[in-house]
């Protein structure tokens, strides 16, 4: 099971990179509770999302994330939805099962740590598609803009 990733967040002027780690189940449950279906709902609440991102990514991550959202308001729904989906799928080791995560998006996992300790780029990542302009154009071409 992969336990460490490098998450990228595309912005207009910069690509932000953050470490993302899987938490021990007890640590996850301590914040979000024992019932798995309730933890998804709680991740939509800022209080719980902040606690989880402080542990899985880094303290203060959510403040940085909101600065990125302020610069990209038109696409804020995409950023928010993908952040929660990635956090949840990584925690429960289902990331590799969802093919949507292999498509270009504003937030994506670019690398994982292998069993030797080296970070390896996922084979589906290419810089031609996994960039801000490509993602924006894809959204605009499908007329699915929602803030």
Could you characterize the architecture of this molecule?
- The protein has helices at residues 25-32, 36-42, 46-56, 61-71, 76-91, 132-141; strands spanning 4-10, 15-21, 107-113, 119-121.
- It is α+β, with helices and mostly antiparallel strands and 147 residues long.
- It has one domain (4-141).
- A four-stranded antiparallel β-sheet has the order 2-1-3-4, covered by helices on one side.
- Strand 1 (4-10) and strand 2 form a beta hairpin.
- The chain starts with a strand and ends in a 6-residue tail after the last helix.
- The model has no long low-confidence stretch (mean pLDDT 94).
What is the fold's blueprint, element by element?
Elements: E1 4-10, E2 15-21, H1 25-32, H2 36-42, H3 46-56, H4 61-71, H5 76-91, E3 107-113, E4 119-121, H6 132-141
Protein name: DUF1473 family protein
Keywords: Plasmid
Pfam family, one: DUF1473
């Amino acid at each position: 099971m992969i336990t460490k990733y490098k998450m990228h967040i595309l912005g207009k002027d910069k690509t932000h990179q953050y470490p993302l780690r899987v938490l021990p189940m007890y640590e996850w449950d301590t914040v979000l509770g024992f019932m798995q279906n309730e933890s998804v709902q709680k991740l939509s609440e800022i209080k719980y999302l902040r606690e989880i991102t402080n542990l899985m990514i880094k303290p203060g991550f959510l403040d940085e994330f909101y600065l990125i959202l302020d610069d990209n308001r038109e696409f804020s729904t995409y950023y928010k939805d993908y952040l929660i989906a990635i956090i949840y799928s990584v925690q429960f080791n289902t990331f590799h099962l969802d093919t949507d995560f292999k498509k270009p998006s504003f937030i994506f996992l670019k690398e994982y740590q292998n069993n030797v300790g080296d970070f390896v780029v996922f084979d589906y990542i290419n810089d031609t598609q996994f960039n801000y302009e490509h993602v924006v154009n894809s959204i605009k071409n499908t007329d699915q803009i929602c803030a």
